[in-house]
Structure formats: C-alpha cells, structure tokens
Amino acid sequence: MNIAITDDHEIIREGLKKILAKHDDLKVVAEASSIAELEKLLDDTQIDFIMLDISLPDKSGLDFVKDIKSRFPEVKVLIFSIYPEEKFAKRAINLGADGYLSKNAKPSEIIEAIRKIERGGKYLKAELIEELFLHNDKLHTNPTHELLSNREFEVLRLLAKGNKITEIAESLGLSVNTIASYKTRIQDKLNIKSTAELIRYAIDNDLVEKY
C-alpha cells in the first residue's frame, strides 16, 4: 500500500517512516509539509493512503478531507494530529476521514489503525466511539462548538489563531462580508461578545494549539 505522510514537522514524518518501514507492504512513497504539496502529489503519484495532520501552514488538513474524498474517493485518510480526539474525531469522520488518531499513539496503535482502515473499516478508539456516537444519556451534552457548521468551525479556528477577517477571506476564497457574517453567527451560537472571548473559548476547548 502506497502511503503519503502530510505533516509540517520533519521529526514527525521521520518517526512515522521508521514505524512503517518495519512492514514491507506499507511503503511511504511521498511526503508533504503543506496542503499545496499534497495536492501536487495526489496529481502526480499513485497514493492509496494519506496520514494527514490538521495544522498545516496553508490550510487545515481537516478541511481538505472533503476535497480528497471528492476527487479521489478510493484514497484512505487517517487524521494524525496533536489535537484531542474527543474534540475533533467526530467532525473528521463526518467530513469523510477514515480514522482519527492522536500523535500520542503508540506505534502498535498506528499500525492497528492503518490495518483496520486498509480492510475498509473506520478507526477510532473503542471508548471514543461510545462517547461520541453511542452515548444516550440525556444528561450528556455536546460542547457548544458542535453546533457550528464545518465552515463556521474552520473560521473559528482561523480567528483564534490570530488571523484577520481579510486574511481569512483571502485564504478561503470568500468575501470579507461573508467571513464577517460567519464570525457573527459563530459569536451568536457560542454566546460570545468579542473576538478576545472567542480566542479564549478556542484555547480553553483545545481547538487551537497553546503557544
């Protein structure tokens, strides 16, 4: 199986290559440090499986999953991220990812995830499946940001990273007015009055990296 690793940290890519090298049928045929590089690789290289980080320099890996699946539906995608699984896994699966795994995972877990997805399954930790998809306790409530659409969630994270509305509009190919409308809807849904509160919410809920 031909695997592409997309992560902007070389040490992560090298570590994954060492783990995968112990399995003759798992061949790392491509590496990318950005979505732009991955797009080119998908056009030029035969890839069966992508290990994809969320935080990349040019675009969120989470938001690129849908593009991958629409253009290359046969390609499997495992999100491999520092962000907590309980915060991002359900959204990733709903966007079309075949699995979600924390970068804290053991090498054996990484191989287990790849094998399960290779067989046509979805990979999440068992306890996470129960928590995210099977929990029927009426007292159990989802975080408020689960109310956000995928685009609103993307804009929230970009704002929380310090991007200006004009910068977000340019990166997403949308108008400034559209992004401003998204920001208003986000603040309404989260009952947040200011950008500073919005940033604090994202940090407190592990939606962006803490620096």
Structure description:
The protein has helices spanning 10-20, 35-44, 61-71, 85-95, 107-118, 126-134, 150-160, 165-172, 176-190, 195-204; strands spanning 2-6, 27-32, 49-52, 76-81, 99-102. It is of the alpha/beta class and 211 residues long. It has two domains: 2-134, Rossmann fold; 144-204, Winged helix-like DNA-binding domain superfamily/Winged helix DNA-binding domain (Arc Repressor Mutant, subunit A, Orthogonal Bundle). A five-stranded parallel beta sheet has the order 2-1-3-4-5, with helices on both faces. The longest helix is centred in the C-terminal third of the chain and has 15 residues, at 176-190. The model has no long low-confidence stretch (mean pLDDT 88).
Instruction: Quote the beta fraction.
Output: 5-15%
Helix content: 40-55%
CATH superfamily of the largest domain: Response regulator
How many structural domains can be distinguished in the coordinates?
2
Shape estimate: globular
The secondary-structure element order is: EHEHEHEHEHHHHHH
Mean pLDDT over the residues? 88
Number of strands: 5
Characterize the main sheet.
Answer: 5 strands, parallel
Terminus-to-terminus distance: 36 Å
The helix tally amounts to 10
Return the CATH topology of the largest domain.
Rossmann fold
Low-confidence stretches: none
What structural class is derived from the secondary structure elements? alpha/beta
Report the CATH C-level class of the largest domain.
Alpha Beta
Estimated radius of gyration = 18 Å
